[in-house]
Structure formats: C-alpha cells, structure tokens
C-alpha cells in the first residue's frame, strides 16, 4: 500500500468513497440519505495537500484529511476507508501518515471528532477523550493524540 497526496481530479472519487463508508454505518444512514450534501471534500484541502490517499493495486482504498489548528495542533478532519477493506490496517496506516506529517510540522497534538462507531479504533491508535461536541448528526467525542 502506498500513501500519497490526493490529486484534484480524484475529488469526486474520494467523495464517493466517503459516501460508501458513511452509509455502511447504520446509525447515520437515514440522516445521510436525507442530507447528501453533508458529504463534501473541499477542493482547497486537496490543493493545499491536506488530503492523503491510500492506494492498493492502483486503486484508492482510503483517505485522510488533516487540517492545521491553532496552538501547534492539527485536526483529523476525515478518515474514510472503503468498507470492503475495513480491518485491513488501512486506517491505521493513514493515522501513522498523519502523525508523521504532524511531527514534521512541529505539531504537538492531533484532534478528531470520533463518531461512536469509530471510538474504539481511535483509542487503539492512542487517542483519548478530551470532551464532546455537537455535530450535524448528534454528539461526538473529541479525542486527542499527543505526539
């Protein structure tokens, strides 16, 4: 598996992947079907090289979006893996890539809004709860990984 910066022409493919991954979670399916506009990947994030893709056998199987935040921190704004590839280490590799990127920029922590179905995954990656936030589809834990 290779991880590289996303290309502008891959935006629609990445949004489709995000849609498939999000709809695979029963809890959010009805909300997402009523609000398909919730799935967006801003082109600016790709152009600024904030989005990285995981590629296997020439096919994109996951992506992450990491955005700068104040006070030497980053936000993991999105992490999506093709549902057929869940539990194959792709998400973990994308987290490792995000951590390496953060370290090279002198970042001391990465935060993520974790949906309930992903909380255990993030805990296994070293993230810890620091609070709660209200999202479009309900409450989510704010989790932080210190570097």
Describe the protein's architecture and organization.
The protein is of the alpha+beta class. The protein has a single domain, classed as Gcn5-related N-acetyltransferase (GNAT) (Aminopeptidase), CATH 3.40.630. Helices cover 33% and strands 36% of the residues. The protein has a seven-stranded mixed β-sheet. β3 and β4 form a beta hairpin. The protein is globular, with a radius of gyration of 14 Å. The model has no long low-confidence stretch (mean pLDDT 94).
Radius of gyration: 14 Å
End-to-end Cα distance, whole Å, is: 24 Å
Which CATH class is shown? Alpha Beta
In the predicted model, the low-confidence regions spanning at least 5 consecutive residues are none
Instruction: Examine the coordinates and then state which fold CATH places here, giving the name of the CATH topology.
Output: Aminopeptidase
Order of strands in the sheet with most strands:
1-2-3-4-5-7-6
Total separate domains: 1
Order of helices and strands: EHHHEEEHEHEE
Structural class: alpha+beta
Q: So how many helices? A: 5
Question: Keyphrases for this structure?
Answer:
about 150 residues; alpha+beta; Aminopeptidase; globular
How would you sum up this structure in a few lines?
It contains five helices and seven strands. It is α+β, with helices and mostly antiparallel strands and 147 residues long.
């Amino acid at each position: 598996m290779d991880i590289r910066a996303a290309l502008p022409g891959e935006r629609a493919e990445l949004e489709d992947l995000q849609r498939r991954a999000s709809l695979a979670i029963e809890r959010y399916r009805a909300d997402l079907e009523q609000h398909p506009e919730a799935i967006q990947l801003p082109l600016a994030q790709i152009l600024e090289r904030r989005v990285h893709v995981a590629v296997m056998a020439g096919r994109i199987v996951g992506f992450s979006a990491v955005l700068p935040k104040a006070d030497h921190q980053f936000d993991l704004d999105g992490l999506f893996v093709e549902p057929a590839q869940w539990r194959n280490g792709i998400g973990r590799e994308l987290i490792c890539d995000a951590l390496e990127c953060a370290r090279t920029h002198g970042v001391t922590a990465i935060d993520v809004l974790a949906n309930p179905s992903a909380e255990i995954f993030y805990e296994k990656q070293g993230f810890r709860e620091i609070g709660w936030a209200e999202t479009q589809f309900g409450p989510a834990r704010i989790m932080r990984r210190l570097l």
